[in-house]
Structures are given as structure tokens and as C-alpha cells.
Amino acid sequence: MSQQEYKGIIGLRRGLLDIIIIILVGLITYALIYVMEYLTLPLIIIKLIIISASILSALLLIIAYLDVKGGFEFLRKSEINIKMATISSPLLLTLSIILFIEIVVYSLITVNIFTSLSEGIYPYIYTLLRIVAFSTLIVLAFSYRKLGEHYNSDLINYGSLIFILGVLTFIFHFKYGGFLALIGIITMYVGISDILKEKFPRFKSSNVSLGVLRNNGEAELSVYSKNQIQVISATILGTNYISNTITPNVLTKGYNSLKINFNSPIQLTPKNIYTIRLSLSNGRTLDVNVIYETT
């Protein structure tokens, strides 16, 4: 469990929070419009509320793009490749750009500037916005579902399906689809939070301890395990160094001190932090950060 992987999961969780806020903004805006129409308030006020909510949503989409993009990039650096991740973040950026264009055109119509041109192109922009929004959210949901499969998280898997159902329902009934999507994405958020609690217990403290990797080929590190399990091999990520000389080679419940001998001198950059990946007998892996020292 490397710091890169930890940062990746944190970024993806922040991305979900951004989208939760966007959905809430949409639902609140829908409720406000309903109330204002019931009270027969001037149309210009309703349009200004729509424009304000759209601007806020567009800004949040850009933040979501940065969080999701950064999250998947950190996971790739940890050699965790999630299918569809490479297209989900660019789609978020594309969606935010189209939304900004839609806001500009809608604003021009509202203030009666270039009215004929704006009204002529607005239906096409709005249709394009809905298509891109639908595609983006579906791809994003499947990306998170793949993340859930990687970490065996039922909450993320079920949440992504509920979210997809919400997006599909959104096409026909905004409010019902919005509520379903909100439930799904909150479920996914809880699932990612559980991953952080279960998989990264040593990052709960700001004082993160590092293992030591020496140039003579020996490494000493501390590993937390929830169950007793055998360690099959150890690999220094980004290098060709691999070893099955691990003492002890069985992890017990709690914190374990391991010594690994890579059986040859190691040439790396002094004082840099590297990640040793432990392959376990259940098919899973465990990443531990180490600092490289010369003796």
C-alpha cells in the first residue's frame, strides 16, 4: 500500500464528493424553480437562478475533473490500471466546456443579445450537453465499478449500478433520476472510505513510518495484516529486483517486522522513497514504502 495508491484513492473520493455537490445543486435548483413558478415570480429571476446554478456546476465539474484525473494517475504510478479511467476524466473536462458554452448562449438569450443566433443554436448545444453528460456519467460509473472490483468493494459495485440506473432514469424524470444517482454516488463514496480504513491503516497518522532498503540488498519494514497469511515474494516497483527470501514469510494478525534479502547489491538513488510490493498467498498484494540508504 504505497503513498501513491493512497493519494489516488483520496483523489477519487474527492471526485465523488464534487459530483455529490453538483447533484445537490441540481436538485435544490429544481425545487427552487418549482416554488418560484408556484408563486408566479418574474421569469428573469428564475433564469438568473438557473444561470448561477449552472456556473457553480461547471466550476465543480472542473474540480471533479482534476480530482478524478489525479486519482487515476496516482493509481497508474502504483501499477494499478483501471479500465476506462483514461477516458472518464477527459469526458469530464469536455462536459464542463460544453456546459460553459451552454451558459453563455443561455445568458445571451436572457439579456436579448444576438437573440436570433442564440435561439437558433441553443437547442443543438443543449442536446449535445445532454448526450455528453449521459456518456460521461455512464463511463465514470463503470470506471468506479472497476475500482470496486479491484478492491473487492461491494458498496462501490452496488453504488455504481444504482448511479447508472439514476442516470438512465434522469432522461425521463429529472427529480427521480437525481435522487437515485445521489443514493448511488453516496454509496460509492462510503465504499471508498471503507477502502481507506481497511487498506491503509498506517496512513491514519500524519507521522508515517518508512521501511529501510539498503544498497547491500537487504530491506527491513513493518507490515500490518488483518489475518495470518503467507508472503510469496517481494518486488521493488519500477525495478527488476525481486526476492522470495523473506523472514518471516508468514504475516500474523497485527504489525509484523519483515526482513527481505534481494540477494544482490542494489543501485538506486540515495534518500529516495521506493515501494516494495509483497505478493501474498491469497493472490493479493501489499505495498510498503521504503527509503533507500547506502552503507
Q: Output mean pLDDT.
A: 87
Structural class: alpha+beta
Number of strands: 9
**Secondary-structure element string:** HHHHHHEEEEEEEEE
Portion in helices = 55-70%
Write up this protein.
The chain crosses the membrane at residues 16-35, 41-66, 87-109, 121-143, 155-172, 178-196. Keywords: Membrane, Transmembrane, Transmembrane helix. The chain contains six helices and nine strands. It is of the alpha+beta class and 295 residues long. The chain folds into two domains: 3-201; 211-293, PCu(A)C copper chaperone (Immunoglobulin-like). Strands 1, 2, 3, 4, 5, 6, 7, 8 and 9 form a nine-stranded mixed beta sheet that branches. Helix 1 packs antiparallel against helix 6. Residues 202-209 have low confidence and may be disordered.
Give the secondary structure arrangement, pairings included:
Layout: H1 3-38, H2 43-77, H3 85-110, H4 115-150, H5 154-170, H6 174-199, E1 211-214, E2 218-225, E3 229-236, E4 242-243, E5 245-247, E6 250-251, E7 254-261, E8 273-280, E9 285-293
Parallel strand pairs: 1-9
Antiparallel strand pairs: 1-2, 2-7, 3-4, 3-6, 3-8, 5-7, 8-9
Helix pairs in contact: 1-2, 1-6, 2-3, 3-4, 4-5, 5-6
Task: Report a brief summary of the structure.
The protein has six helices and nine strands.
Task: Considering the chains and any ligands shown, give keywords for the structure.
9 strands; membrane; transmembrane helix; nine-stranded mixed β-sheet; 60% helix; Immunoglobulin-like; alpha+beta; 295 residues
